[in-house]
Design goal:
heterodimer; A: 479 residues; alpha/beta; Rossmann fold; ten-stranded mixed beta sheet; two-stranded antiparallel sheet; 17 helices; B: 444 residues; alpha+beta; Immunoglobulin-like; five-stranded antiparallel beta sheet; elongated; transmembrane helix (chain A); transmembrane (chain A)
Chain lengths: 479, 444
């Protein structure tokens, strides 16, 4: 069945050109690679897993500019801020607080080890603060075991390993490290404490704020690790607790203060890539936005156009190249146009051939074309034919003297004697392989003897040269 | 304009040159001087218009009304085949090339195998050819055509205007031959028997003898004169004759119109025309590669002659080798189905062959003879047929060269005779008289 082509190739090419122009007009994609705990980062230090985890249960979103922080007025809102890289100003904190106040009620989860989120806490009117010091365990490593209590509906206590955590002050403590050390300054000696609070809870006008002095427990690398189950449970319990069992809980992740770099900058300075890659999987997330940039026409089309421009300038400037280019263009145009017409070789229609079949076609054609050569074997055949006719008609053999008498009556004494002698001598020569008489050309000799034999056969009432020939004599004998 | 017609028209090698010039002019108009654009556009318009015309012509030709006519003929007479092509449309079909295919065994004697036609609108053209008719079944057609535009830039694919037809040519019953055999039989004194015996014609009434069939008693005589008499019928002298043709490729070798098959056909047709007047029962069986053809149960009169002629005209020409013994077996099966239970005269037309064929032929003959039939084998001498048409000097050389073949064929005949088969080894001459002599000799 013939395939129907709905869209021609030219239409497809036109659409591709239009698409390229549109892409150029729109500009390259703005892709970021985040280094910190951004909810948009699927890399080791990002919190994208946490975001996905929450989104499975609640309506969730992430904002990357504070101006975009617009919350629904008919829901309970939960504000999640994990380890912001850039400190919040009080103004920004107030902006957050104002946005949250639009909701029916709200809660906040702030996990921060540097204190960069304290202005948000101030704006939310809580007494809780992230101290910004470093909590060590009994062995003075920055990975202390903390007892964390989840408040609210799913109240429970979890034992969590912290990673470079900070002390939290104010509010109602809900997480602590026992027998640990605190490092307050750069070169200050660790101070031993029996209990160090690393999480606190405070409710301001029935709006709970839960602060944890470590954001690393929500990172992708923790949640997807072998022991990630415990952390996932903890993280979900915290969020569920803050949602307070509300069915229309709206969770917003703030990614506005996480530092990132444009993929185009990484493309321009590839040496920066190593800063963002912690494991091979991260490399994939760094390379992908770069590839999307490379594939975009804004990356390759302007240089290509520029190169073509220079190339055509070069071609037009050189007479030899110009002529060659013209010739090439002619050939190309020819093939493009020719492709529109199916071609065929125009020959006249074959004519019907006629054949006449002969059982002996080869010999017949050869005789007619004069290609036949007669030899000594043909002489023997001629001799046999004449002999057979003589035997059939007169009962004498050609070698017999009586045949000579018969022939002399028919064709004359002299001619018959000559014929009789020649035929018999040659017959003896061939049969007994004698040297004499010498025959220079059998072809000429046999042709001559055929002519002489015709005279003899005619006299005997038959012929070699008429349609009713000697074979009729043989037929007579055959019956 | 149908898209199918568009695909049927292709550019020719002449178009290549025009396209090349057009491409060059187009490129020059872009890169050198815009003045080249006008001639380039003119050429593009020319290409488009010629292609359009070729497509329209193709469509017009495919919608033409075609009428064919083949004259009824017999072997040796001309067979006229004409094709009328009527262009019903308003577009003149400027250049149509046609070519007629036909069986390669046929020979065109008048007209052309191919032609170039111009068919004006609302008009017709007639293409006529004349073949030298030869006995047998032949194919005439298909008539193929292609259309071109007047400049020959485009050409259509082949269009089959007329499908292949089969033409059956009957053998002529040569009046000369019939007269010859009539004269022969008259001079031999062959007439009605005028003897009492089995038959349908009344011979007379005689006294009843013991053993006479009571159904033949003349009751009227018994009632009037109280004498028991019976009707006596004239003895029937009709013969039941079967012609068998072994149509192997060897039967079709020879000069045009003079092959053993054609000669045998003419002989059979002429003899059947003669025997039809004599009221003999006749039937024909032809064993061909495609199967056995028969004129049916033995019948008499003109009906039998017509049936035999028609059967001979249905025999296809074959060139591929066949198992000749198989042909004989098929023929025997057919004959046995329709053979009357009486002493039949069977003439088998065949050619000489090898030892295996000799054996098969003898089996065939003996089987028929065992059923109380007289079987004659007519073997044409190949050289006697093939020598015809050659100049005298060539005939002599040809005879010398093929003397061994003559000897072989005669040897084949001699072997058949040796095994008590009745053989008519013969050339084109005297065959009808020989066969009629056999028929009439048996009648008397």
């Amino acid at each position: 069945m013939k395939k129907l082509k709905l869209v021609s190739s030219w239409v497809v090419i036109g659409l591709v050109v239009l698409a390229l122009i549109a892409l150029l007009e729109k500009g390259p994609p703005i892709a970021y690679v985040f280094s910190g705990a951004s909810p948009a980062s699927p890399m080791s230090f990002g919190t994208y897993e946490f975001y996905l985890l929450v989104r499975e249960r609640h309506q969730a979103t992430a904002v990357f500019r504070l101006d975009d922080l617009k919350l629904p007025s008919n829901s309970r809102c939960v504000y999640v801020l994990i380890s912001p890289d850039i400190p919040y100003t009080l103004e920004e904190g107030r902006h957050v607080a104002k946005a949250l106040s639009q909701c029916v009620s709200y809660a906040a989860l702030i996990a921060d080890e540097w204190g960069t989120s304290n202005n948000v806490l101030i704006a939310l009117n809580t007494s809780v603060r992230v101290v910004g010091d470093l909590v060590l365990d009994a062995l003075r490593t920055p990975y202390p075991q903390a007892q964390m209590r989840v408040i609210g509906r799913y109240e429970n206590t979890y034992e969590i390993t912290l990673d470079i955590a900070s002390e939290v002050s104010g509010g109602t403590p809900s997480g602590f490290v026992v027998n640990g050390y605190v490092v307050t300054g750069g070169n200050a000696p660790p101070i031993k404490r029996d209990v160090i609070y690393v999480a606190a809870y405070e409710s301001v006008k029935d709006n709970p704020v839960y602060v944890i002095g470590d954001g690393s427990i929500f990172l992708n690398q923790v949640l997807t690790s072998k022991e990630g189950g415990r952390y996932r449970e903890f993280a979900l319990s915290v969020v569920e607790g803050l949602c307070g069992g509300q069915p229309n809980c709206y969770v917003v992740f703030d990614g506005s203060h996480h530092s990132g770099v444009k993929a185009s900058d990484l493309l321009a300075r590839p040496q920066l890539i190593s800063n963002y890659v912690k494991n091979p999987q991260d490399l994939f997330y760094v390379i992908t936005p770069m590839i999307s940039l490379i594939l975009h026409p804004t990356f390759w089309l302007p240089p290509l156009a520029s190169w073509l421009n220079r190339f055509t300038g070069f071609i037009f400037g050189n007479e030899l190249f110009y002529s060659s280019a013209l010739l090439f263009a002619v050939v190309l145009t020819y093939y493009l146009v020719k492709g529109r017409f199916p071609s065929t070789s125009d020959f006249r229609l074959p004519e019907q051939s006629e054949v006449e079949l002969f059982a002996t076609s080869d010999i017949r054609n050869a005789v007619l074309a004069g290609r036949v050569k007669l030899g000594k074997e043909d002489f023997i055949k001629l001799y046999d034919m004449v002999n057979s006719v003589l035997v059939g008609v007169a009962g004498v053999e050609l070698s017999d003297e009586k045949a000579l008498q018969l022939l002399s009556k028919a064709v004359g004494a002299e001619a018959s004697l000559k014929y009789f002698k020649e035929m018999n001598k040659l017959y003896v020569k061939v049969k007994k392989r004698k040297l004499l008489p010498i025959v220079l050309s059998w072809d000429r000799r046999v042709r001559k003897l055929i002519t002489q034999s015709e005279e003899v056969l005619k006299a005997l009432g038959t012929s070699l040269q008429s349609e009713r020939g000697v074979e009729y004599v043989f037929l007579r004998f055959a019956r | 304009m149908s898209s199918e017609a568009l695909t049927q028209v292709s550019g020719t090698q002449r178009l290549t040159a025009v396209l090349l010039i057009t491409a060059a002019l187009l490129v020059f108009s872009v890169f050198v001087n815009i003045d080249f654009l006008m001639p380039a556009m003119a050429l593009v318009a020319l290409i488009a218009s010629t292609r359009g015309y070729a497509v329209i012509s193709y469509l017009a030709l495919s919608k033409c009304e075609i009428k064919t006519n083949a004259s009824v003929t017999v072997g040796g007479k001309p067979l006229t085949y004409s094709i009328e092509i009527f262009n019903k449309g308003l577009i003149p079909i400027a250049l149509v090339e046609i070519t007629l295919n036909y069986s390669q065994n046929l020979r065109l004697v008048k007209g052309s195998k191919a032609a170039l036609l111009i068919i004006p609108p609302k008009s017709s053209v007639t293409y006529e050819v004349v073949f030298n008719g030869r006995v047998g079944k032949h194919r005439v057609g298909p008539l193929k055509a292609v259309v071109r535009d007047p400049l020959g830039l485009f050409r259509s694919s082949e269009l089959e205007l007329v499908k292949a037809e089969e033409v059956a040519i009957q053998p002529p019953a040569r009046e000369v031959m019939i007269r010859k055999v009539w004269t022969h039989t008259r001079s031999a004194g062959v007439v009605r028997s005028r003897e009492p015996g089995l038959g349908v014609e009344l011979y007379g009434v005689r006294e009843f003898r013991p053993g006479d069939d009571l159904r033949r008693v003349v009751w009227r005589t018994l009632a009037s004169s109280n004498r028991l008499s019976v009707k006596e019928m004239e003895r029937e002298t009709y013969q039941s004759i079967f012609f068998v043709v072994e149509a192997s490729p060897q039967m079709f070798y020879g000069p045009y119109g003079g092959t053993p098959y054609e000669h045998a056909s003419e002989v059979i047709a002429s003899i059947s025309a003669y025997l039809a007047r004599r009221g003999d029962l006749m039937s024909l069986v032809v064993a061909t590669q495609d199967g056995v053809l028969t004129s049916g149960k033995p019948s008499r009169g003109r009906n039998a002659y017509v049936k035999i002629s028609k059967t001979l005209s249905m025999v296809p020409y074959i060139a591929d080798s066949v198992d000749r013994n198989l042909l004989l077996k098929k023929a025997l099966k057919e004959i046995l189905n329709s053979l009357p239970r009486e002493r039949n005269l069977i003439f088998v037309f065949t050619t000489a062959g090898d030892e295996t064929y000799l054996k098969g032929l003898l089996e065939f003959i003996n089987k028929l003879r065992s059923l109380n039939n007289d079987v004659y084998v007519a073997i044409p001498l190949t050289i006697a047929y093939e020598v015809r048409g050659l100049p005298p000097w060539a005939q002599a050389i040809y005879r010398v060269k093929l003397y061994d073949k003559v000897k072989d064929e005669l040897e084949f005949a001699r072997k058949l005779v040796k095994y008590r088969a009745r053989v008519i080894a013969i050339g084109p001459q005297y065959m009808p008289e020989t066969i009629v002599r056999i028929v009439e000799a048996r009648r008397s």
